[in-house]
Amino acid sequence: MAEVEEAIVGSAGGQRFAGLYPWIIFPSDRQYGYIWGVYVEPDYRHRGIATRLIQLVVEHLQGIGCTKVVLNAAPKARPLYQRLGFSDSNLMELDLQEKTDSRRQKDE
Fold it and tell me: Residues 6 or more apart from 45 whose CB is under 8 A from it?
């Protein structure tokens, strides 16, 4: 949730997806997080609020063991998600294992 002067101006949700996965897939490879309900009041858009909300949800999902984040984006929001590293498709994805691997390489 985003607040400005004690007023809620934006929100976003996320959770680990508990859908049906084939049992042949290793549990560590099927820990998908889903982002939903990203919204910022019109008067507060284009100020980085949605970006920060998404970053916080991604951090939370990564913290609970998700290996990939998926979402369905409105056409106007797609450039925002692309800037944050999501692939461009009807179901936009961000591979957290790849992101973690690249961070490790930078730290070494």
Answer: none
